[in-house]
Each structure stands twice: as structure tokens, then as C-alpha cells.
Amino acid sequence: MLDWLSAEEWTAVRLSLRVAFWATLASLPFGVATALLLARGKFWGRQIVNLLVHLPLVIPPVATGYLLLILFGRQGPLGGFLAENLGIVFAFRWTGAALAAAIMAFPLMVRAIWLAMEAVDTRLEEAAATLGANRAWTFAVVTLPLILPGIVAGAILAFAKAMGEFGATITFVSNIPGETQTLPSAIYAFLQVPDGEASAVRLVIVSILVAMAALLASEFVSRRIARWIAAR
Question: Rounded to 5 degrees, what are φ and ψ at 8?
């Protein structure tokens, strides 16, 4: 692949992998916590939380990117605070691309984990509680192993979604080669210049291969984990 792709194309692929990896890793703990809250929580405002989690799926990605720019830009309330106090900058940086990708992929991650959590027989958790286990220990030894296939599936689907994110990313961090130009942004850029179609086609093929590999890996790993749990 290194010989097949040019240096500029390979840079975009490598940056996309980096963005997708950190977007998935950083959002995974929040995805598990949110799924647990929605599946087990009984509180006022639960539907509002559910709405907010799934909102990025239904509003235009460009709108999401613009909201991120307002909030996390250098002049934004969160972006200004993070830049001045912690030295963390998101706008027009690859970290911003990771943030945008994480937000757009978050609903898919939460949904997969939520469905896995709802499939768990709550009587198993109740049995652990009657034996003296607290909620944290019950989750660690009973619930977590049972929902592990859902966590893996959600993480891989989120990774694939993050790899393909375009609208929110290009609005929030622009399309800077070597800094924020991810694979979808590079495809768009190549299609805007003469003789760029060949590069765009190569990157489209890479996108399809990565997406297919992610889906196959999700199915394979989930089944292996499910068999391992059943054999215990």
C-alpha cells in the first residue's frame, strides 16, 4: 500500500487512523457509562439524555461542526478555557478532528452497548446483590463480561464511523494537509483539482477496505467473546 499510495495520500490515511483510534479510545468509557445509565437508570430526564446522545445522527454534520467551533474554538467558552489553563487546543488541530469524530460516532457506540446491556438477565445481577456484592462489583464481575461483545462491536463500529467522518470535521478543523486532512477530506480535496480523480479513487478503495475490515472484525471478535463467555 505504501508504494500504491502517494506520500500525501498515505499521510491522510495515517492521520485518519490516528484520529479514529483516539476518538474511539477516549469516548469508550463515556459510551459504557451512558449505555449503563440509559439501560438501568430510572430518573427524570432519561429521554432527554437519550435524545442528546442520538442527536448527532439526525442533525446535519455541518451543524455539529459549527456548534463545536462555537464551543471549542479559541474564542469559545470551553475552547478558551482549555487553551488558557491547560494548553489544549481543538480548533484546526488533529485533536479537534478526533473530538468531532468521537461525537459523530458516539451514538453508534452507545446503541450497541445499550442493546447488549438490555439483553443481560437482570436476575443475575440481583443474585449477585443478594450475595453481598455492591453495584460496582456486580457490574465488574457479572454485567461487564456479558456485555463485552457489545462493547467490542460498538467500539469497532465507532472506529469505522470515525474513519469516515467528513462534515463535522471539515467544518470544525478545516482541511489542512498533514494536520487535519483526514481520508474523507483528502478525497474531497482531490476531486476539486485537475487530475486528482485517480488519487480520490485510490482513497475511496482504502475507505471501503477499512470499513469492511472493521465490520468483519466486529462480527468475528463478538462471536469469539460470546463463545468464550458461554464456555465459562
Answer: -65, -40
